[in-house]
What we know:
By secondary structure, the chain is mainly alpha-helical. It has helices at about 10-30, 35-50, 65-75, 75-90, 100-120, 125-155, 160-175; strands at about 55, 60-65, 195. The chain is built from seven helices and three strands, in the order H-H-E-E-H-H-H-H-H-E.
Amino acid sequence: MHISEGILSPPVLLAGASLATAGVAYGLKKMDMESIPKVGVLSSAFFVATLIHVPVGPSSIHLVLNGLMGVMLGWAAFPAIMIALALQAMLFQYGGFTTLGVNTVNMAAPAVICYYLFRGAVRSEGAKMAAAAGFACGFVSLTLSILGAAASLLLTQKAFLAPVKVVLVAHRGGDGLGHLHLARPLGAAQGAHGFGEDLTYGRIGRHPGTLVSRADSP
């Protein structure tokens, strides 16, 4: 769920950067030397997983893994996710540096919420309880991330309401619904399995509310 540069308003970017800075600082404070390898491995997994898109019909899906990272890392998910997103922006122009704060908050905040909601149940000795908690963790983290991305767009411009509705309906329906002036269709979100939509946005199109995907924008 990457929002590219040139979409969000300065107040939204500033708020995202401030929240991300606070989250990363607290996450670094909570980290110890023993957890650094685990943070590095999960950050690398997030970096790779969110770049691999699997075609499904007219759309595509990709792993998100922020729920898993939250349960395993807690607040350390903030620096882990920010590093992965920064490398994606630098190496592949995926997302952007001005939107790094907003994208980090949209992905890492749900991870931390899932840490507090599901850490006990996921680590329980009962296999059924752990499986159910993992299922719920993936769904909740993905849903909250999509709602965060939608809120970021709506706080920028009310004209984004139409494409935001399509994003939310596609997430709930999980069937790769139409693209609504997107250069390519939105991917279906399979929340229960930890899959997420490609919410990479590019420049504003010819009229308000029209989004052009990063890969197809000039």
